[in-house]
Design goal:
1 helix; single chain; alpha+beta
Length: about 50
């Protein structure tokens, strides 16, 4: 059985991100949904720009 995993990121490296996770069986509604926050991390942005 295949699974569908969706990650949604909303935010930026300076203020942090809200992350939504949804897991569903193929062609069905999500049976697991959760939301969490990732803290800001400006050093990642600086590394990506270099």
């Amino acid at each position: 059985m295949k699974k569908l995993v969706i990650l949604k990121f909303d935010g930026n490296f300076e203020l942090g991100f809200q992350v939504n996770l949804e897991i569903a069986n193929e062609k069905q509604r999500a049976y697991l949904t959760t939301t969490t926050n990732l803290p800001e991390n400006i050093s990642i942005l600086q590394i990506l720009n270099n």
